[in-house]
Amino acid sequence: MAATLHSGALYMVATVILVDVSLQGSPVGAAHMITATQPLSGQQKLVSQGGKFALGFYQPGGDSQDKWYLAIWYNKVPKVAPVWIANRETPISNPASSVLTIWTDGNLVLLNKSRSAVWSSNTTITAGASNTTVVAVLLNTGNLVLAYASNTSNMIWQSFDHPIDTQIPGMKFGRNKVTGVSNCHVSWRNHIDPSPGIFSITMDPNVEAQFLFIWNNSRTYFTPGKFNTQTGAFSAIPAMTVMSQPHSIYSYDYVNNDKEEYFLLTIKDDNIFLRTLIDPSGQQKGMVWLEEKQDWVLYFVQPSLCSVYSYCGAFSWCVADSVPMCSCLRGFSPQSPTEWSSGNYTGGCTRNVALPCRLSGGGSTPSMSSRDEEDRFYMISNVRLLPDGDGSHTMQAASKSDCEVACLNNCSCLAYSYNGTCSFWYTDLMNLQEDPDNKGDSIFIRLPASEIPRIKSTRGRTIGVVTVISALALGVCIIAVSHFLRRRRRIKGLHNIGVNLIAFKYRDLQLMTKNFSDKLGGGSFGSVFKGVLPDGTVVAIKKLEGVRQGEKEFRAEMSTLGRIHHVNLIQLLGFCSEGEHRLLVYEYMPHGSLDGCLFKTSSDDDVLSWNMRYQIAIGVAKGLTYLHDKCMDCIIHCDIKPQNILLDASCAPKVADFGLAKLLGRDFSRVMTTMRGTIGYLAPEWISGTAITVKADVYSYGMMLFEIISRKRNTEFGKQHMDKFFPVLVAEKIQEGDVKALLDADMRGDANLEELERACKVACWCVQADESSRPTMGAVVQMLEGLVQVNMPPVPRFLQVLDEYAGQSTDTWTEFSSSSC
């Protein structure tokens, strides 16, 4: 039975941008054939009889690379995407001096400029056959066949039997049960290099109706499960295939007989251009050409990137709903920061500090000082799947402590976990993933002590006391230990991916900040200073102002905030609560705030590109979605603006100050409007006196999104009499279909116009006066990522009024903005 996909069930999850190359060659011959006397060369192309496919020379890297390939593509699609390549491992440098012809033995051969064969059909042809009796024909299915000239239906060889990375309608994907040969689809090395990559898809030799995703020809990292011909679904991804519909425009069939088993993609409308491929990312993607978009778009993708083996590389952590998805574990940094910032994470992470484990007597057992003083562990909780690697071993143990001791006693042991049984890892850790349902296991990663704040357990302190007593007088020891305990207090049981939230002494923070002399900036409700922990870790320390909570309540808030973890939220490392002193210790962000990076002149070398800005917008939206929907208590940020968005070393965004709304409680609204009202970001309900909901954050996010798009402050338009208020200008331009006019002239070549239009529509929806008309932050993420369509938004009435005030004096506009918006 055929499993079919209804045309209305296509869901667009992303836009695929391919290299657009110009191939304006002339067709070869009237019979759509290649013969010994009618070869193909240079800019010529062989077009199938129905005109659907073309064969010619293709240059994926454009003029920047002198590499050409013999390829087949959809002839009527202007954005070329090869569905088959002959010489993917042996490119030629000049198609004008190369030729595709029928060789003397009847094989189809590609010759380079020195007339050496770089590719051949390499098939055995019946004795007596020659270049005068054999021809090559490109069928309208996209299949290049070698056949006898007297009867072209008598095929000798066909390209469909030798696929690269792509399946098109009419092409079988399966295996020959007689010969045992499977059609294996192998990814490109990267998006401009079609040579074989490390990912492939092949039929499962042991289970019928199932195919496997393979990494590096050695490891299965995903299978969609067994195909059910009754439901038209794979067992592992039932939502990926829709139930059969008789009016479907295409179908996915499974055929199984004595000679072969295969999957076949068929279409009912020959004007639809469809293909599926294994991408260099390791995902299988189904793509269809949409004429109205003039682009290839995805209608399905599997598996998730976090499920692709080695996508984030070694010693990295993959979080599916974050930007970027990959982040290095504590104590590790990107192996290649350049590749990491470009979105290529496969190089993984490397240690900041080498493990100091010292061998004793040349063996693998560490010395006592190394075990007690230099190597430690930090815990990663909620791991969906523990890393699978060749270096994992198991051991029976009575407790977690036994596992830890066993791992410490072996310098080769890099990590352990305990679930009734100890598991140890001795090779690079791969494929660590977060479990969004918080039901995963925990794993303990071995690090030098310098990479972990030195926080000792009660048991550890006791052992230390006993050791000191043996050497010093009892009275001196008691004084020293008491002093130590006072300086190293911590909250028991408070963990976030194994990192203890530290309770700092105010005097210690004074030393770390050199008496608060290095000020990073003034954030909401306090100033931020740069500090350095004793182990050399740079941190940002915020002195809170206006917090009136008692000691017990403040610590309770710290306990809540310490459990919050998301790649797009700033990480809280510790706090100080001594009398009137309330301070928060955060991770340090080297690129500072979005405000500082966004509003730079275009002449600056480090100006944020459109792609970086768009990814920042998505990342901030994901961070707010986590605060609104995925925390134990819903957290409304209440002060979203570029100053509160910080950028890490790879310019990934992290929302800061998200805990202040909880700390300040209901007094926050009064503080915001009377003390620190931020003109241009406050939702109208702040002034109206109605209850504040998460939609207030949505409004502020929308106003900030306008600034991300324009790279200009919203408040500047009231000071420039010739300018129209930018949010109103956006609303008008998207109605006119002219979003390109919203960009500076020097940025227009950098922006993706589809993303720009999407961002403009989302921003307009976010700033609707009626909060019920605003989307949730979760919906904002889906819209920005292209998962759902964004309808045309109405122009908010109060923004038009603001635009009228923008033409008046600066003082009049500012007064209106602060009182009405």
From TrEMBL:
<dbReference type="InterPro" id="IPR001480">
    <property type="entry name" value="Bulb-type_lectin_dom"/>
</dbReference>
<dbReference type="InterPro" id="IPR003609">
    <property type="entry name" value="Pan_app"/>
</dbReference>
<dbReference type="Pfam" id="PF08276">
    <property type="entry name" value="PAN_2"/>
</dbReference>
<keyword id="KW-0808">Transferase</keyword>
<dbReference type="GO" id="GO:0048544">
    <property type="term" value="P:recognition of pollen"/>
</dbReference>
<dbReference type="Pfam" id="PF00069">
    <property type="entry name" value="Pkinase"/>
</dbReference>
<dbReference type="GO" id="GO:0051707">
    <property type="term" value="P:response to other organism"/>
</dbReference>
<dbReference type="InterPro" id="IPR000719">
    <property type="entry name" value="Prot_kinase_dom"/>
</dbReference>
<keyword id="KW-0067">ATP-binding</keyword>
<dbReference type="InterPro" id="IPR008271">
    <property type="entry name" value="Ser/Thr_kinase_AS"/>
</dbReference>
<keyword id="KW-0675">Receptor</keyword>
<dbReference type="Pfam" id="PF01453">
    <property type="entry name" value="B_lectin"/>
</dbReference>
<keyword id="KW-0245">EGF-like domain</keyword>
<keyword id="KW-0418">Kinase</keyword>
<keyword id="KW-0812">Transmembrane</keyword>
<keyword id="KW-0732">Signal</keyword>
<keyword id="KW-0723">Serine/threonine-protein kinase</keyword>
<dbReference type="GO" id="GO:0004674">
    <property type="term" value="F:protein serine/threonine kinase activity"/>
</dbReference>
<feature type="domain" description="Protein kinase">
    <location>
        <begin position="514"/>
        <end position="788"/>
    </location>
</feature>
<dbReference type="GO" id="GO:0005524">
    <property type="term" value="F:ATP binding"/>
</dbReference>
<feature type="domain" description="Apple">
    <location>
        <begin position="357"/>
        <end position="448"/>
    </location>
</feature>
<feature type="signal peptide">
    <location>
        <begin position="1"/>
        <end position="30"/>
    </location>
</feature>
<dbReference type="Pfam" id="PF00954">
    <property type="entry name" value="S_locus_glycop"/>
</dbReference>
<dbReference type="InterPro" id="IPR036426">
    <property type="entry name" value="Bulb-type_lectin_dom_sf"/>
</dbReference>
<protein>
    <recommendedName>
        <fullName>Receptor-like serine/threonine-protein kinase</fullName>
        <ecNumber>2.7.11.1</ecNumber>
    </recommendedName>
</protein>
<feature type="binding site">
    <location>
        <position position="543"/>
    </location>
    <ligand>
        <name>ATP</name>
    </ligand>
</feature>
<keyword id="KW-0547">Nucleotide-binding</keyword>
<keyword id="KW-1133">Transmembrane helix</keyword>
<feature type="domain" description="Bulb-type lectin">
    <location>
        <begin position="31"/>
        <end position="159"/>
    </location>
</feature>
<dbReference type="GO" id="GO:0016020">
    <property type="term" value="C:membrane"/>
</dbReference>
<dbReference type="InterPro" id="IPR024171">
    <property type="entry name" value="SRK-like_kinase"/>
</dbReference>
<keyword id="KW-1015">Disulfide bond</keyword>
<keyword id="KW-0325">Glycoprotein</keyword>
<keyword id="KW-0472">Membrane</keyword>
<dbReference type="InterPro" id="IPR017441">
    <property type="entry name" value="Protein_kinase_ATP_BS"/>
</dbReference>
<dbReference type="InterPro" id="IPR011009">
    <property type="entry name" value="Kinase-like_dom_sf"/>
</dbReference>
<feature type="transmembrane region" description="Helical">
    <location>
        <begin position="463"/>
        <end position="485"/>
    </location>
</feature>
<comment type="similarity">
    <text>Belongs to the protein kinase superfamily. Ser/Thr protein kinase family.</text>
</comment>
<dbReference type="InterPro" id="IPR000858">
    <property type="entry name" value="S_locus_glycoprot_dom"/>
</dbReference>
